Amino acid sequence: GEITTKRKLGSDYPIRLSVTSVKDNDGENQHYVLVATDITEHRQAIERINYLAHFDVLTDLPNRVAMQGRVAQLLTLAKEKSHPVAVLFVDLDRFKAINDSLGHHAGDAVLKGVAARLKSCMRAADVVSRLGGDEFVVLLPTTDEHGAKHVAQKIRDELSAPYLVDNHHLTVTPSIGISVYPEDGDDADTLIRNADSALYHAKRAGGDTFEFFDPEMNAMAAERLMLKSKLRRAYERNELLLQYQ
């Protein structure tokens, strides 16, 4: 088995220990042979793999996998206690311009700053995660629509302040989509998808704002998807006629 022991200088370290009994001619235990193997590097490698599987390397925030698991846990508890849960989908407006003009190192510095500011806005029970790129998700247990609005405004104020990167004062603003359990869904996928729909409308409104999910948003999204699909098929079949006036 594996146990923890101490080095001569007093620090703890893990070992894999095997114990074998040595018997005499009468079958009685004469003595024991212990073989200990230092597995510090093995344990560190496992911890690193687990970290990479559940955390974003750049920001140290939980990643998509960890976030989805956390949403499921919060919803289970919320259903037992009849508590609301708010999901905020946060996206940075015109973030691509920073990468294109100053390089990805500048964009990474801004993302680290955004992650730190998001965490500073939250309570101990809240969860901030990075899905990838400039997309973040904030989970607010025991938070209704009123509380989510307050947090969204706080996030806007915090993230909109300039970031000092390579002697440049860079400014980005957030667009935020909000969904609330149980009104906007009772499972993780639905809540995140609906928050994403609300984010899309916040973007269309010009950014630097937040929108709550409305069921009509899904109907509009389905209509856009259907129209896009029909236009693509019409183009492939040469069914479009171009006219000049």
Strand order of the largest sheet: 5-6-4-9-10
Largest sheet: 5 strands, mixed
Number of strands: 10
Low-confidence stretches: none
> What structural class should be given to the helix and strand makeup?
alpha+beta
Shape verdict: elongated
| Discrete helix count | 7
First-residue to last-residue Cα separation: 83 Å
Percent strand equals: 25-35%
- Determine the mean pLDDT: 92
Q: How much helix is in the residues?
A: 40-55%
| SSE succession | EEEHHEHHEEHEEEHEH
Q: How much is the radius of gyration in Å?
A: 27 Å
Please describe what this structure looks like.
This protein is of the alpha+beta class and 245 residues long. The chain is built from seven helices and ten strands. The protein has helices at residues 40-54, 64-81, 96-102, 104-120, 145-160, 188-204, 215-236, and strands at residues 2-6, 12-23, 29-38, 85-92, 127-132, 135-141, 163-165, 168-170, 174-181, 210-212. A five-stranded mixed β-sheet has the order 5-6-4-9-10, sandwiched between helices. A three-stranded antiparallel β-sheet has the order 1-2-3, covered by helices on one side. It has a two-stranded antiparallel sheet with strand order 7-8. The longest helix is centred in the C-terminal third of the chain and has 22 residues, at 215-236. The radius of gyration is 27 Å and the shape is elongated.
